[in-house]
Description:
The chain has helices at 23-31, 49-53, 60-77, 92-109, 124-132, 147-152, 163-170, 185-193, 198-208, 246-251, 320-323, 326-344, 389-405; strands spanning 8-12, 36-42, 81-88, 115-119, 121-122, 136-138, 153-159, 175-178, 224-228, 232-237, 262-265, 268-271, 276-279, 285-288, 291-294, 298-317, 353-359, 378-386, 425-434, 438-441, 450-454, 461-463. By secondary structure, it is of the alpha+beta class. Helix 3 (60-77) packs across helix 4 (92-109).
Amino acid sequence: MTQEHEPVVVMVPTGSLGAGVRADEVARGIALGAQVIAADAGSTDSGAAYLATGQPKHNPGAIKRDLSIMIEAAWASRIPILIGTCGQAGGDGNLESVRAAVVEIVREMGIAPRIALLRSELSRDQVRQANDAGRIRPLAPLGALDDATIDSCEHIVAALGPEPFIDALQAGADIVLAGRTTDTAVIAAFPLMHGAGAGASWHAGKTAECGAVCTVRDEPGSGVLLRIGKDSFEIEPLNAINRATVHSISAHMLYENSDPFKLTEPGGVLDVSAADYVQLDDRTVRVTGSVWEPHPYTLKLEGAATRGYQTIMLVGIQDPVVLSDLDLFERRMHAALMGRVHDTIGAAAGDFNISLRLYGWNAVSGASVAGREPPAEVGVLFVATAESQDMATQIAKACNPYFFHMPMPAHREMPSYGFPFSPSYIPRGAVYEFVLNHVVEVDDPLDLVRIEWLDPDNWQEAAR
């Protein structure tokens, strides 16, 4: 166990595997005494598609590049690598993309590290059984989970805590590739295993989850270095020019968190309401006073379902009559398009939806823009959602004439708007949605994880 006066040194080289690891930063982290490399590889930020399809967000080349830098540096120093939420969503298919990259890298390097896989994808039967046993409860705003919702999921994962990482490390893992984990757990695992304080470990993990995003970047930078003790942690950017400040570090508790003082994780709640942030030097901040409150152990469930298909069209508008009253234009256009579908397709259109998003006006917020000067131009994105791809495209085709030329009352001649593509309609494919916002109670943190080991002789997966 690490002594009280010896902090555990954790390197977080990037906030998202595949987004860009910097070799010079990793080398600097090793030189500064990093004992482990820990990195998150995904989240729900980019929507449900990656879990539903099992496909990674980043391209294989980007993932392999980042891993190559990390593995080469870590193997030379014989320090472990922990990767959480592989392939963006952490399902078995997502995990496979990172496993394949690691196997390719170690073959090319001619090394044989012990590699553990932490699988957190659950079958529908597992979830139904837990639900029937009364172990699943909803998080707001959802209600009780039913079988129909479970059956609609393409894939379901449980967001693991730090214990599966610790179990794999204690069994001798050099590289741990995990399915869905909380962003914080992958960073907190190693210091918790080596005796660092729970409050300090979890708070350090939350702060560093996005790598250098929690710092002031005067130059491009990707990672941070943590020194985690019993009652405190210190953080600095891996780039020697960039800075951690009291403001940048304390503000990160607001990131993806509804409460700036409390963060719920598997097995407890991190409370930083009494935390104290001190600027040690121009680049380093020390944090004390973080508290870990143990709670009954639960894992958050995420499930993705297919919710129809979409076809889109994009048009650019500089017409001053339209730009002078965009809200009226949007209302008139939407009503005209809905009427067009009912008149030309009728009941055969089924359950469909048309939305218009005015980029340059209110497409990001969706809110009415009062008292603002008209923009010089807007881009109007048409989105048709239907029960099949063919029907979504038929709706777009039916709406195209109005989308091309619809006049406003003040127009004396028929206006024309600018389409950047021909054909103007673009089939976008399936629409995916997260339909689970629930937690499952477990008796043991390892109850819902399958730990597998890769055989270094033939690099085939072998169940532990």
